């Protein structure tokens, strides 16, 4: 994809990099190796730099993931102990993201003992109000949610020019912040030169209290703006939707929006008669799986450490070590104690998902196509966190380290608000990606190219987002961080990037 980080032509040689990596590994020996250190050492080693620590964390996370996937609890415990000493909830972005990946790996291990798992995590459940508060903070300090709301609203306004009766279907309202999206749309419709349409909003959410509050606020606002308005609540999950629940009537111009929700409908998708991701590589080692993949797929390559670029942030250089296209780090097949691990290389990127033929996602897309929408706007995370654990681990680590890096541009290192957002939103997503399998794993993000195939198979055609939408999105990103956030245009769709890492895609479709 254009905009990806390129290798630095002035990078050091592979030999010198290998030497540096070996030095880095030996600078922080594990407990087993530390026990053999002689008493003749004259002085303690200096603390590692942020870059060295970041590379060390990445290396240990990969080794730990391999041990967990191979059910090698002895080495998993050893690596977790080392990771615990380097990770921190209030450290730099790589330290913080490592904390949540470590928690996810630990949760994956304890899931083998359901009683132990429930006992350990029963007090970590978050209330709806806590999550709503975290989403409100995220809305305030970053462009991620605003980007989705703004682009969806502008796409609807463009598609509904001249329409007198408009029906908007929101596939999964996200609480209080979703109200802000529709309040903005009401305001925009009220100022149309030809006057506002008769507007009907259908909101889908399993929680009736969320729908009731949303309906009250939107109805009051519509009355103040003198807009003919109806609110239609549907108290089910998107997976349980039926066409007659939506109440679409003849003569209505229909718009559908989905903000980071469609990926949760992929959990039951079947390939070759099996639920995808059901085994998750829980018993087979990364090394074995990757060895087989590397024979047939050239995309599975070792990470070239020369691809590290100079930047102001040691964390960014560490994050770049994950690869310019989600490359992996090559290890020497041993941990720092010299024990054989058989890890080989980590994947560049998982295989693009194949759309299933009998799944919730295909059924829901067919249902939505039957509504004949003038436009459907889809906002999704722009990464591939699907497939077995060895396929999704590296892309997820790259993606979330970029998110944590972006939060540093607006929130101080020791900010309680930043900890709240990372713990209740992104930390929960990481744990679900790393620890869960089968129907329990809801965070199954896919890239725009994958969604394009799905929509085409459901007989949708692409609808180009207008230049006005792109201009407004660029303005929003400039407000938040003119040097950090970037907008990439791809064949009529928009991709929000942090520096050079794609984060969110917005695409539009029509029946």
From TrEMBL:
A cellular component annotation (GO) from this entry: nucleus
The entry's keywords: Transcription, Transcription regulation
Any single Pfam family the record assigns to this protein: GRAS
One MF annotation (Gene Ontology) recorded for this entry: DNA-binding transcription factor activity
InterPro entries listed in its UniProt record: TF_GRAS
GO BP annotation list: regulation of DNA-templated transcription
Protein name as annotated: GRAS family protein
Source species of the chain: Selaginella moellendorffii
